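Onboarding guide, step 5: your first structure request.
Type a short instruction followed by the sequence, for example:

Predict the 3D structure of this protein.
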Amino acid sequence: MSKVAIVMGSTSDLPVMQEAIDILKGFDIEVDVDIVSAHRTPEKLFDFSKNAHKNGYSVIIAGAGGAAHLPGMVASMSPLPVIGVPVKSSNSIDGWDSILSILQMPGGVPVATVALNGAKNAGILAAQIIGSSDKCVLDKIIFYKEGLKQKVIDGAEEMKKRKN
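The system replies with structure tokens like these:
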């Protein structure tokens, strides 16, 4: 069974990151969540990043606000795919500092970056990565996406009814 690690710089990031936790659990993917600060607990960051693949994780989701070094630092030390979630924090410059810190990675150190506070999409992307080699997860993603499609169709039908 595949596992996803979700790490964030502080507990204040949890309300945003909860959406990734919830969506992954909805796909029956095991999730481990931890606080790993790039600036306040660098030793923990190094240990986590260097050993994540040995600890059974398939994908890492890292959320951070402000300077947002966590996703890039994790990616620099881990062979696993890393998905960065820029978090608009209280010390943020409208979230742009977080977005650019995660998005503008040097060649050779990729971080897949989702929208500001886009943890739900990070969870979906992690599930899709796992689904590329796990048919059970893939089937759940297909079902989920069909549900999204149906919601739009139902909404359009409801709108037509109101119009008449």
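Each response can be followed by summary notes, for example: The two ends are 50 Å apart (CA to CA).
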